[in-house]
């Protein structure tokens, strides 16, 4: 075996020497040794992705360009292990390299001297670590080099650009880096340096191989033909094909590229074959003419053609590992990091002058978030990408009055972050000195009102003014009823400022807060025409751009509102953006960022200044109008809207604004405008009640955030119908909530405390029932029930009262009707109902009632017997259960939300029935049958690992102090209630969330209460757990094992293979007594990134718990002095875990 390997090794080495004769043999041997070590059986056992051995030829060719390139750098270009391997695997790889004497952190610098154009090549002169070399690279047709506007060179980007030149000289490459770090800008810089025309191709999740290569279309006479995609056009014309979003596309679609990348050959759907330029030239040399080849369907791939892929790094441990061995073999990989703080400061200084104090502190915060070890903060850092910092800098240069706090709140949409993430952000901001100013625009009641006026063709909002737009499309300018309230006017000023800076806007808020109203009002004031598009779950990439229709057997593409807005310079309002899948809305990226987009009918949107040097026929171009803007509206992410997180995916492309319900004063002013005749005190009570309800929704106690829309509807109703009962008007809004008892109780409590009527609000009474008076005449029928029957049908449908003859009578007996007794079923014939009294209906013989009662009692005893539980035990458990009954419902609601998000359905294409697929209309014309699509639950791709469950571990404090101080603050009871709450709430969810429970005291640090494979199945087992806790706490030795318990829980859980691991450590805040420093506990909580650990303090002497809360890492500690708040804490933890996995 070893001899066989050495022969293969030697053969491979000889091949590399032939291809790169000038390269030092030692370096080639090191390259080969490392590659063969990575694919050795020993390393295969630890599941390392295969090293792309075939790409070693590419590494040797790069080495041929300049022999001074370190071996590690070459290996890293082929196998960027830091990007896709876990810490342990990275360690294994580096040990192998160390054993082969390959330095893992070599020092090297690459400098570009100049680029000279000669014939169809560009000669590049570079210097690497002092050694100069010259090599030729392919170049485009635009030899006049133009520097891209707004591009500021930094040392890091210049070095990376020079590295790209090396890779470009030998093949296709991929740039992997976080969103907003400047990947697209770097590629455009490379294109302008080498005179290339860029073909932007945005990849999306449900893109098919056909979309990537060729699509069917029809000619004017109805004939169907194949139309080349942008990728094929780039191959034929020698352009630079930029595949944006390699991490989004399905691996099966990407498989079509393998032959194009490796062999530079491609077979098209219409039978055409694309050949590599040298093979095509050989055919010509063999005597075939160009015409012969053309007729045979053979075309030449241009030698200058290159593919550049852009991607975001895979999320480790999330199952979203797109960087597979197949993709590793396709490209040379370059990592791109976010720019450092100093580099960003240099760029901002160059573009916008001196950096103000607020901007400096924002940049400091961005730097801290990126460097943070805390996963929550690290995830938040993507909202302050370089792209977003440049936007903030341009705004602050024009409007220096913005404070750092206001800017941070808007950029992160802090209002809508999960509680834990918000607290973590506030903690990080406070450390840098970004604090809420005493006067913060929207919420400062004493702040001066912002004025809004239109005079002499000039709009002025606050201190911002602009000329009113002149347009012919007056019918498209919104004309709405809008009452100016201080909060909305302040928001309009911000929006106007961003609009004037040329930014596209993103408005995020709960439903009913007035996002559409505010957007329309802005356009109404500016006199700007609007195009409107509303997205939904079934929105596809095609429907977002063009709408195909069949007319006389020919497919005609109608422009969507998006294309009309781009053409005519209108403002596109994209409503409900969160409803469409993010892999659909992501195609807006290149349009917003660069003003480029390829439509599904082959046309392309391009910036005006690129009309001349873009690929394709000029007739297929749509230049972006200078006045085109986009305003995107979206609901907040998460429950109850269950939309997609548009902000997380594309938020840093837009200027973001959170639209909140108006403040109490602003809301009162708004309601007075809608209901001038409604009594002031009624409106005040309504506003106060809704303020409380919203506050409860923010804290997670209510799922639905009641908005201004509902409040306005109540007031409008009262204004129009002043004699209407107030309870009915309020009831109309809360009708839906009467089906949930917990929700109904909460609502009634809030309404009652605000002084509003509660009687009948949630009883669902109709207006007619309130208007008709009921007259009750008491008399008993004195008749017995005999045998039930349908009764006779009355052909004239006369009303029948009493008796037992007619069907559909009222107040009778035995027959089908209403209001009587003894009938087989109800039957309504539309008459007034005469109702028998409840007393008569209840006049059932005592022996029947007794039998029913005995049956009930017997069933209860059977249940107790079944679980071997005494009546006393049942009563005891019932006390604990009753105390947390509402909270169990709340927590089960949170778990149901997790489940619902998991079961999102997707489109299955190529079906023989269902809804007609836009993309297959032409196939339908040609007679194909599988041209439909249906919504189905998404099946995991073949070979994908099964869904892993979430792992939850509860670590409970049962030390002596819990028993000792239980009478002081009920801490032990609270801990026992928490166990009942969690075990009851997780019933039925064990497959999705696997949990176990451990306890710690002065004696034990890991007392097992619940095994992960044996959760309690009945009341007796649950009672046994809390009895064990109580007994242990009563009889254990004093002492504290909180730290060893936490260490053991986190370390052992980290070893398990789970979708997500969460540890909840319930403890009293009695650490000081045993000399435990909060910092020690904090270090343990954040010790392993694979486990989210949280300390929940359920007991405190004095202010101990709150002191600990301030000293522990933000978002990892909680105080729970009332078990009712435990579901909210759990909800926050789950919400922040969703944020990290999105």
Automatic annotation (TrEMBL):
GO terms for cellular component: cytoplasm; protein-containing complex. Signal peptide: none annotated. Residues 805-823 have a biased composition (Gly residues). One of its GO terms (molecular function) is ATP binding. SMART domains: AAA, VWA. Residues 951-1133 form the VWFA domain. This is VWFA domain-containing protein. The lineage of its organism: Eukaryota, Metazoa, Ecdysozoa, Arthropoda, Hexapoda.
């Amino acid at each position: 075996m070893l001899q066989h390997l050495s022969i293969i090794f030697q053969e491979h080495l000889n091949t590399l020497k032939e291809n790169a004769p000038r390269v030092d043999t030692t370096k080639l041997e090191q390259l080969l040794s490392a590659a063969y070590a990575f694919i050795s059986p020993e390393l295969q056992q630890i599941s390392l992705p295969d090293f792309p051995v075939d790409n070693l030829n590419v590494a040797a060719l790069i080495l041929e360009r300049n022999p001074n390139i370190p071996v590690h750098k070459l290996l890293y270009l082929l196998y960027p292990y830091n990007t896709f391997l876990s810490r342990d695997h990275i360690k294994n790889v580096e040990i192998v390299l160390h054993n082969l004497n390959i330095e893992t952190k070599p020092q090297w610098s690459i400098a570009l001297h100049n680029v000279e154009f000669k014939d169809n090549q560009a000669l590049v002169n570079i210097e690497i670590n002092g050694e100069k070399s010259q090599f030729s690279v392919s170049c485009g047709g635009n030899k006049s080099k133009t520097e891209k506007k707004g591009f500021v060179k930094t040392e890091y980007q210049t070095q990376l650009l020079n590295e790209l030149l090396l890779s470009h000289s030998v093949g296709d490459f991929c740039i992997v880096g976080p969103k907003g770090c400047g990947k697209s800008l770097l590629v455009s810089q490379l294109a302008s340096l080498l005179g290339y025309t860029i073909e932007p191709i945005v990849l999306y999740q449900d893109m098919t191989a056909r979309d990537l290569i060729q699509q069917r279309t029809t000619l004017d006479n109805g004939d169907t033909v194949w139309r080349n995609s942008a990728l094929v056009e780039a191959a034929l014309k020698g352009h630079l094909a930029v595949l944006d979003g390699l991490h989004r596309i399905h691996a099966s679609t990407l498989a079509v590229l393998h032959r194009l990348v490796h062999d530079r050959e491609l077979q098209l759907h219409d039978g055409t074959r694309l050949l590599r330029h040298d093979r095509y030239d050989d055919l010509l040399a063999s005597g075939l003419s160009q015409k012969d080849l053309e007729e045979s369907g053979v075309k030449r791939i241009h030698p200058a053609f290159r593919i550049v892929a852009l991607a975001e790094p895979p999320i480790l441990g999330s199952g979203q590992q797109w960087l597979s061995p197949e993709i590793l073999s396709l490209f040379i990989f370059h990592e791109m990091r976010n720019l450092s703080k100093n580099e960003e400061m240099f760029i901002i200084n160059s573009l916008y002058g001196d950096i103000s104090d607020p901007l400096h502190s924002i940049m400091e915060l961005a730097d801290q978030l990126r460097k943070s070890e805390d996963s929550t903060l690290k995830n938040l850092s993507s909202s302050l990408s370089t792209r977003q910092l440049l936007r903030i800098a341009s705004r602050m240069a024009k409007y220096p009055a913005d404070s750092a706090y206001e800017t941070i709140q808007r950029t992160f949409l802090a209002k809508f972050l999960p509680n834990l993430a918000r607290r973590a952000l506030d903690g990080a901001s406070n450390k840098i000195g970004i604090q809420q100013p005493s006067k913060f625009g929207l919420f400062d009641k004493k702040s001066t009102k912002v004025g809004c006026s239109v005079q002499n063709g000039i709009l002025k909002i606050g201190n911002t003014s602009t000329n009113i737009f002149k347009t012919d499309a007056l019918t498209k300018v919104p004309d709405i009823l809008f009452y100016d309230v201080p909060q909305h006017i302040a928001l309009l000023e911000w929006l106007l400022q961003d609009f004037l800076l040329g930014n596209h806007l993103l408005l995020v808020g709960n439903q009913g807060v007035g996002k559409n109203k505010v957007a329309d009002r802005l356009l109404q004031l500016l006199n700007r025409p609007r195009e409107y598009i509303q997205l939904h779950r079934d929105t596809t990439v095609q429907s977002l751009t063009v709408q195909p229709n069949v007319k006389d057997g020919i497919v005609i593409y109608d422009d969507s509102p998006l294309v009309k807005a781009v053409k005519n310079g209108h403002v596109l309002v994209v409503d409900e953006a969160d409803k469409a899948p993010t892999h659909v809305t992501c195609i807006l990226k290149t349009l917003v960022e660069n003003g480029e987009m390829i439509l599904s009918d082959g046309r392309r949107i391009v910036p005006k200044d690129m009309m001349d040097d873009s690929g394709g026929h000029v007739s297929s171009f749509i230049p972006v109008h200078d006045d085109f803007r986009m305003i995107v509206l979206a609901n907040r992410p998460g429950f109850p809207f269950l939309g997609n997180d548009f902000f997380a995916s594309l938020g840093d492309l837009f200027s973001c604004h959170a639209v909140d319900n108006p403040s109490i004063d602003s809301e009162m002013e708004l309601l007075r405008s809608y209901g001038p005749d409604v009594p002031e005190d009624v409106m005040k009570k309504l506003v106060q009640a809704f303020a409380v309800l919203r506050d409860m929704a923010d804290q997670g106690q209510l799922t639905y955030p009641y908005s201004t829309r509902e409040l306005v509807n109540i007031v409008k109703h009262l204004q129009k119908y002043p004699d209407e009962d107030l309870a009915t008007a309020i009831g109309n809004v809360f009708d839906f909530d009467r089906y949930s008892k917990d929700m109904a109780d909460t609502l009634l409590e809030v309404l009652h405390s605000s002084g509003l009527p509660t009687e009948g609000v949630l009883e669902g009474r109709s207006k007619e029932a309130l208007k008709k008076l009921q007259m009750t005449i008491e008399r008993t029928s004195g008749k017995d029930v005999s045998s039930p029957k349908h009764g006779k049908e009355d052909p004239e449908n006369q009303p029948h009262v009493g008796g037992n003859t007619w069907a559909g009578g009222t107040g009778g007996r035995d027959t089908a009707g209403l209001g009587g007794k003894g009938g087989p079923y109800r039957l309504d014939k539309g008459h007034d109902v005469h109702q028998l009294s409840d007393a008569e209906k209840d006049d059932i013989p005592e022996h029947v009632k007794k039998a029913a009662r005995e049956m009930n009692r017997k069933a209860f005893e059977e249940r107790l017997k079944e679980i071997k539980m005494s009546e006393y035990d049942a009563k005891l458990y019932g006390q604990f259960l009753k105390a947390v009954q509402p909270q169990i419902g709340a927590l089960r609601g949170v778990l149901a939300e997790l489940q619902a998000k998991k079961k999102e359905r997707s489109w299955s294409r190529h079906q023989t029935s269902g809804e007609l697929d836009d993309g297959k209309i032409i196939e339908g014309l040609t007679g194909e049958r599988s041209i439909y699509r249906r919504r189905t639950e998404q099946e995991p791709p073949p070979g994908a690992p099964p869904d892993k469950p979430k792992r939850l571990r509860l670590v409970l404090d049962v030390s002596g102090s819990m028993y000792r101080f239980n009478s002081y603050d009920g801490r032990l009871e609270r801990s026992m209630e928490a166990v009942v709450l969690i075990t009851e709430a997780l019933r039925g969810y064990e497959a999705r969330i696997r949990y176990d429970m451990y306890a710690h005291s002065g004696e034990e640090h890991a007392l097992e209460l619940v095994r992960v494979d044996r959760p309690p199945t009945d009341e007796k087992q649950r009672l046994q757990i809390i009895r064990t806790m109580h007994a242990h706490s009563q009889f254990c030795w004093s002492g504290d094992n909180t730290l060893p318990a936490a260490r053991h829980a986190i370390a052992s859980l980290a070893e398990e293979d789970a979708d997500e691991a969460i540890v909840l450590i319930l403890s009293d805040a009695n650490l000081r007594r045993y000399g435990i420093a909060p910092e020690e506990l904090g270090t343990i909580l954040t010790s392993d990134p694979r486990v989210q650990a949280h300390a929940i303090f359920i007991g405190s002497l004095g202010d101990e718990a709150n002191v600990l809360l301030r000293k522990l890492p933000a978002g990892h500690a909680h105080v729970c002095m009332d078990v009712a708040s435990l579901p909210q804490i759990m909800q926050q933890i789950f919400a922040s875990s969703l944020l990290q996995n999105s």
